Amino acid sequence: MALSHFTAAMAAAKPFPGARTFLNARVKWVRDPYLDKAVENEKNLKPLLSLKALIVSQPSKTLPLRIISPLRPQLRLPTTALDFVRKYHYLFKLFRPPNMRLSTPHVKLTPKALSLHNDEMLITGLSHYRKDLAERLAKLLMIARARRLPLGVIDKFRFDLGLPHDYLLSFLPEFPDYFQICDMVADNPSPLGPQEFGLELVRWRDDLSVSVMEKQWRGEDSETRRRGPIRFPMNLPRGFDLEKRVKNWVDEWQNLPYISPYEDAFHLNPSSDQAEKWAVAVIHEVLNLLVSKKTEKENLYYLGDYLGFGMRFKKALAHHPGIFYVSNKISTQTVVLREAFNKNLLIEKHPLIGLRYKYIYLMNLVLRRGIPIHAAAIRNRERLASIKGRNIGKEGRGQRLARIGDRYHGNQN
Fold first, then answer.
1. 191-229 pLDDT, tens per residue?
2. Residue 150 is part of which domain span?
3. CA–CA distances in Å: residue 83 to residues 87, 92, 93
4. How many domains does the structure of the chain reveal?
5. 14 lies in a domain?
6. Do 218 and 273 belong together in one domain?
7. Are 306 and 15 in contact (CB under 8 A)?
8. Is 149 helix (H, G, I), strand (E, B) or coil?
């Protein structure tokens, strides 16, 4: 693995102490409602798209409900298959085939969902889209020392990378100069247990071995570059205040040399501040490779265990809440790259994210008096009713809601 000029600069600079200087001060977790909203918006999106992919993979574009029900664990459905399909009736339709007597219910996509799926296939089939995906997957493999990762690790990041469900057959064969399936037996014993097969990069690609942070630094003017090493953007939420001694440590830590995630720095003392800055660089780059700039925390830990970082990923997330936010929404913990968001919206939207937003819109549509209404609008109306109710006097709650509801539906007609 080639060393960058950043490593050369670090070697020539005054040596930094190998011991950790981070103080044993508690870095408190402060809720960020905007980033929580960004995570919560995607509730049930992953299982919904998995079910959609399963249905459209059939020649008839339909599937009996009795086939879907046993696959609930694999699809990660939060409820029974029947309840899930009924909940998202703007995307899925239950029907009985007319030519089959006493047939069990079947599931197909609604016309709106099918149209959206066709748009998705059109965009994801574009050559520049697929090349971008191949390069991001290649960069993930380049972060691994052996330029290979078990398929189990790749699968953890499949959704976040934007890989198709059947990427082994529909995507990888297009890039024989990039990828090949490899035998992982030689890597055993692996920290993840026995791993039979993996994905390997055919050859190292110097043009891809530049991190997002390095690209940004190179884009700065010469005066900015002379001021010091690469520093990570810090975006602390309102109400968050680091202790002075922790703030001083962060400032000193930011001034340590930046080591590229595409370099091998395992020779560093794993408990040193310099090693932690490298671990942060690896997590930062991985999140930048993902279309949504976020992933479940367990996915990062899974990757970190295989790469050999052990507890260092956990410490990096805990020590740097200004770089990474950990959301507890939707019954899991999600690591979000703060700098990638303006409030709850991505600053740079990947084409796939735009499509996913459209699925989310259909997921949130509900019927009120036969009219499709976004669920958020109903919640806002209910909150407004609650606020107004405090100043209305003796008017009953039911009367207030009915009056506001009638006014709302009257405006829609």
1. 656 668 999 999 999 999 999 999 999 886 655 556 678
2. 126-209
3. 6, 11, 12
4. 2
5. no
6. yes
7. no
8. strand
